[in-house]
Specification:
Blueprint (H helix, E strand, L loop, with lengths): L1 H12 L14 E7 L6 H18 L3 E7 L5 H11 L5 E4 L4 H7 L2 E2 L2 H4 L8 H6 L1 E2 L2 E2 L2 E5 L3 E5 H6 L9 H12 L4 E3 L14 H6 L17 H15 L23 E7 L1 H11 L4 E3 L10 E2 L2 E7 H4 L4 H11 L2 H11 L15 H7 L5 E2 L7 H16 L5 H16 L4
Parallel strand pairs: 1-2, 1-3, 9-10, 12-14
Antiparallel strand pairs: 3-13, 4-13, 5-6, 7-13, 8-10, 8-11
Helix pairs in contact: 1-3, 16-17
Length: about 425
């Protein structure tokens, strides 16, 4: 089955653009795979079309193509493209995806791309995109997540002070449940990364996905069991939607329907959409919930350079395009259109967004996740076990121990 899937992906790449050193006109060609950083498809297309045209106007000997890709299937398609040396020269990825490709030797360091403006970038963004002392991603934006609240739901439940800790959240759950409102919109479906669901709770309890030496997983330790049991206790108290195990973080869900009070690891765009659905006056943005630690998920988006592009004649052209996208003017425009933050201090933040100002307060708590070459593989093994626990099929410990057994086989290279 895996061989069939790999073959299908290779065929699909033929229709997704191909990297190359030049064309019949003598121009150097550069292909970049970009993802829906700008949530609105029409705005995304318009933005990247303008980026292409503006760059080519300044660099007439370079032909660039921004190939807009969906989030779905990203990991498999990127892995296949890098292995086949086709599809793209540049690709957008997050910090936890870099170690895998760095270890495989399919991406190239980009320290020289950032070097001219290195002092302008957020230090945390550069650190997050660095593996084994080498920078593998050029930061073009910075995300941060924070809890968003349906204030009206809390008011109707007689709660005047919004919870600030996980303990307070749990204590308030029965009050909202009495109004048939789940206090926490937990997106347990496989479409939502664990970085936006289970991991923030794990981190807040002082836990981690991997052991310090990276040779095994640690999510099934006491902190992990405590974190999953917390979710099970919330569900038992009516604090999670009934379908939390399969729920996706999509528009029109329980938050917009007024059936959930909190989305824990939300982005600014989530706050904007919620405001449009229930009224901006009913939306509040909080700081990350306090547990043993106060932490939330937040990453820089990084442009990676394929190793085969580094070795091709168009390497300089590709790096020039990466520098252009990461420049202060483009970073400012991208931040405004995406609702994220620029990854450099000399770019401007959209002051017109009141919710974005609130999200900025959580930047100091942002954590890019547990980087490891097997991070995404481990996540794929953990998701169904957490779902099984939420569906009452396994205890918290059983679910995490079963996931750990399968994950350790992958981490150790045995599976």
């Amino acid at each position: 089955m895996r061989k069939i899937l790999a073959a299908a992906l290779l065929l699909a790449l033929a229709g997704c653009g191909s990297s190359g050193s030049g064309d019949s006109s003598g121009k150097k060609t550069v292909t970049m795979w970009m993802y829906p950083v700008i949530d609105d498809q029409a705005k995304s297309k318009a933005f990247w079309t303008k980026v292409e045209k503006d760059f080519e106007a300044k660099n007439p000997t370079i032909d660039v193509k921004v190939d807009l890709q969906p989030w779905e299937g990203r990991q498999e398609k990127v892995t296949t493209s890098l292995a086949s040396k086709k599809g793209f020269d540049i690709v957008l990825l997050g910090p936890d995806q870099i170690p895998q490709y760095a270890k495989q030797g399919t991406i190239s360091p980009v320290d020289d791309v950032v070097a001219p403006d290195k002092a302008a970038f957020r230090p945390g963004a550069l650190t997050a995109l660095t593996t084994d002392g080498k920078l593998f991603g050029v930061p073009i934006y910075q995300t941060v997540t924070a809890p968003i609240f349906n204030k009206k739901a809390f008011a109707e439940a007689g709660i005047t002070k919004l919870p600030e800790t996980y303990d307070e959240l749990k204590a308030d759950a029965p009050k909202l449940a009495a109004k048939k409102i789940a206090i926490l919109m937990y997106p347990g479906g496989p479409e939502t990364t664990l970085n936006l669901s289970f991991y923030p709770i794990l981190w807040s309890n002082g836990g981690s996905v991997f052991a310090p030496d990276g040779k095994s997983v640690a999510f099934n330790g006491p902190e992990g069991v405590q974190s999953l049991q917390y979710l099970l206790d919330l569900k038992a108290a009516g604090g999670l939607p009934e379908n939390a195990a399969t729920l996706d973080k999509t528009e029109g869900g329980p938050m917009e329907q007024g059936k959930a009070g909190i989305l824990n690891a939300a982005a600014n765009i989530d706050a904007v959409k919620l405001g449009a659905a229930i009224g901006a006056e009913n939306v509040a943005v909080g700081l990350p919930f306090k547990g043993a630690k106060q932490v939330t998920f937040g990453i820089p988006g990084g442009l990676l350079l394929a190793k085969h592009a580094e070795n091709a004649e168009n390497a300089d052209a590709a790096k020039k395009f990466m520098q252009y996208i990461a420049s202060a003017p483009v970073a400012t425009d991208l931040a405004k259109e995406s609702g994220y933050f620029p990854a450099r201090a000399d770019a401007q933040v959209d002051e017109a967004s009141p919710t974005l100002k609130e999200f900025a307060k959580s930047l100091e708590y942002a954590y890019p996740g547990d980087a490891h070459p097997a991070a995404r593989q481990v996540m794929a093994l953990l998701v169904p076990e957490i779902q099984a626990a939420l569906q009452g099929k396994k205890t918290a410990k059983q679910a995490l121990d079963d996931a750990a057994k399968a994950a350790n086989a992958v981490v150790s290279g045995g599976g």
